[in-house]
Design a protein that fits this description.
Number of domains: 2
CATH class of the largest domain: Mainly Alpha
Largest sheet: 5 strands, antiparallel
Order of helices and strands: EHHHHHHEHHEEEHHEHHHHEEE
CATH architecture of the largest domain: Orthogonal Bundle
Radius of gyration: 24 Å
CATH superfamily of the largest domain: Intergrase catalytic core
Distance between the termini: 31 Å
């Protein structure tokens, strides 16, 4: 009778330096103690944990300025803080939950009852929602045309051809190449605006034949689907239009070379030496800078935002008749997704040479993928029956 294969779970744990001191002291004295504390520190995605850290620090700063106790805090203090946020006018009532979760989470970590709960806080949230009114009309976000992808790529390649002395120095040149390549990579792989800043260096590569990414799509119940996608640099023409893949690869190599010349060997692909890890706000700033420098402006009443990269890529693919199930697979949408239809596809987008250049490989089936693997959303890698695939 064959032996049952046993699973082996490898852990990727976050540093526990931000956890309560008394918990760290107790953990050092028992087997598994520090691992348990690091498991607690790894319970959230790093981007979520960073956001909670910012929200908690803002609450601490408020309490300090008003001579109030932040730890432990009372529900009354949280009520006053909500009033403070309402007076600032920069936080919508519908967006309060992360602020309250940060306060509750910090209290639970230190063994205190969470104060941002109960009738008083719930009533204040409801009142804030009723009291707030929009004071201006916001522009509607729309997809970027594929021609904008081509324009950013061309500008990036022009910068790559310049020596550092003409580009404002080695650091400025690397930053410019980073902006362009992060943008092009998101567009090429139909990615979210923050997909680039969350990309680890080990999950990306360019060799003589392919440009590849290890993509991770978050699913429900704390699980994620991870897969490799490889795009051939020798892709043929699509409806007579040359592939943009070799140009994207040239831009990528130029950025990686510039990063290495600065001494960059960090974990995150788009983090340069001496800088903190980039986040979604950084990507938003990069996109805004690229569009401004390229003179790319939305029509009156509309706006190009980070979301416009993903929706522009999806709409361009749809315009050149990429089959829907392939588009869903590439962008990580569920088959028949209403989200894709309602929030990403613009039926007014028409076929263009740039769309064929960026996505013709999808039409021709010129790509490779490995068997997908399930991992947990905390990024602890699970080696199961699917096994490694790249």
């Amino acid at each position: 009778m064959p032996q049952r294969r046993r699973h082996r779970y490898e852990l990727t744990l976050r540093d526990a330096s931000g956890m309560p001191r008394e918990l760290l002291r107790a953990a050092h004295s028992v087997s598994g103690g520090m691992t348990g504390v690091r498991l607690l520190a790894s319970r959230l995605e790093e981007s979520t944990l960073a956001a909670y850290g910012r929200h908690w620090q803002a609450f601490v700063d408020y309490c300090s300025s008003e001579a109030l106790d932040s730890l432990p805090a009372t529900s009354r203090t949280v009520l006053f803080y909500l009033g403070h946020l309402a007076e600032k006018g920069t936080v919508a009532a519908s967006s309060l939950q992360p602020y309250l979760s940060a306060i509750n989470g910090a209290h639970r970590d230190h063994g205190f009852d969470p104060p941002a709960l109960g009738h008083m806080v719930a009533g204040a949230r409801q009142g804030m929602g009723r009291a707030q009114a929009a004071t201006r009309t916001t522009d509607a976000r729309i997809p970027l045309p594929a021609s904008a992808f081509e324009s950013v790529l061309s500008a990036g390649l022009e910068l790559a051809a310049q020596p550092a002395t003409e580009a404002g120095g080695a650091k400025a040149r690397a930053q410019g190449l980073r902006r362009a390549y992060a943008f092009a990579l998101c567009a090429l792989f139909v990615g979210r605006q923050d997909s680039a800043v969350h990309l680890r260096a080990r999950d990306h590569g360019i060799d003589d034949s392919f440009i590849w990414l290890r993509l991770t799509e978050k699913m429900k119940r704390g699980r994620a689907l991870r897969r490799i996608v490889r795009l051939p640099l020798s892709a043929g023409t699509a409806r007579g239009h040359e592939s943009a893949l070799p140009s994207v690869a040239r831009l990528g190599r130029a950025y990686i070379d510039a990063r290495e010349q600065l001494g960059g060997q960090g974990d995150w692909l788009f983090q340069l030496p001496g800088e903190r890890r980039p986040d979604t706000r950084a990507m938003e700033a990069w996109v805004a800078r690229l569009l401004r420098d390229g003179g790319i402006r939305a029509p009156p009443g509309f706006a190009y935002l980070g979301h416009s990269i993903r929706s522009g890529a999806a709409s361009a693919c749809s315009a050149i008749d990429v089959r829907r199930h392939i588009l869903c697979w590439m962008g990580g949408w569920a088959p028949g997704s209403a989200t894709l239809e309602h929030h990403y596809l613009d039926p007014s987008v028409t076929p263009s040479p740039a769309a064929y250049a960026f996505y013709g490989w999808l039409l021709r089936g010129e790509y490779e993928m490995g068997m997908p693997a399930w991992v947990d959303a905390a990024r602890a890698r699970v080696v199961d029956d699917v096994g490694e695939y790249f």
